[in-house]
Amino acid sequence: MSENFVPLSLNDSFRFKCSASVPCFNECCRDLNQFLTPYDILRLKNNLGIPSNLFLESYATQHTGPESGLPIITLKPAYTSELKCPFVSTSGCTVYKDRPSSCRTYPLARVLTRSRETGQNVEQYLLIKEPHCQGFKQGQINTVREWIKEQGIEIYNNMNDLLMEIISLKNRFMPGQLSIKSERFFHMACYDLDTFRSHIFDKGILDDLALDSKTLDIIKKDDVELLKLSLKSIKIKMFGIK
């Protein structure tokens, strides 16, 4: 493993702080290659107060994962030579309270694998010690567990794990490219949540699931519960797994 990546357990500790006083402030927000998860998009589009389709049109690009064959969303850099994040300013992140999970977790990276013996997810954290980053010289010492709590990472991990389960199912049962119909459904259910909601109520896209009235009332207003349902519907419709 590269010396820039240090494996850590939940109880291992590290020193880090990022602030405007750090010489490299905002440097990690340039030369961007930022993947977005469905929950990242949910938080960002609500922070900006725009529907999901407008967020995707304005701030995102899509390509197909070479291994998974699934649509992948990346953040579209600002049109400058620096390829900087569209949400970074001279004073820092303008969407900080709803920043994506990878930004929130940094300087850690979370790696999730599935145990062949138990079928359970196995979580591993890596400390990313990039040469340019001066944040390791400042701040208090935290354990990985404390960092997760302090940065509000747990809800992101929980939601992202639902997507990882789908990716695992795809790799096991449906390798290769998706059909056009499946790709469109996956994209809408994962990333274009407001359009997916309208298709539930206006076009009956989930009528075959016979959703009860209580569930329908909840997902009219609750984006998190809607995302949970949309990811569950992918498992049902694409893989026949309830």
How does this structure look, described?
There is one protein chain. By secondary structure, the protein is α+β, with helices and mostly antiparallel strands. It folds into two domains: 5-152, no CATH class; 161-239, no CATH class. Helices cover 40% and strands 17% of the residues. It contains nine helices and ten strands. The chain has helices at residues 38-48, 52-59, 101-105, 144-150, 154-173, 180-190, 193-202, 213-221, 223-239, and strands at 5-8, 13-15, 35-36, 60-64, 71-75, 88-89, 92-93, 108-114, 121-128, 141-143. The strands form four sheets. Strands 1-9-8 form a three-stranded antiparallel β-sheet, with no helix packed on it. The chain has a three-stranded antiparallel β-sheet with strand order 3-5-4. It has a two-stranded antiparallel sheet with strand order 2-10. Helix 5 packs parallel to helix 9, helix 7 crosses helix 9 (223-239) and helix 8 (213-221) crosses helix 9 (223-239). The mean pLDDT is 92.
Overall mean pLDDT = 92
Strand content: 15-25%
Helix and strand composition category: alpha+beta
Number of domains: 2
SSE string, helices as H and strands as E:
EEEHHEEEEHEEEHHHHHH
H/I helix tally: 9
The total beta strand count reads: 10
The biggest beta sheet reads: 3 strands, antiparallel
Give the helix proportion (percent range). 40-55%
- Radius of gyration (CA) equals 19 Å
Rough shape? Answer: globular
| Alpha-carbon distance between the two ends | 38 Å
Strand order of the largest sheet: 1-9-8
State the low-pLDDT regions, or none.
none
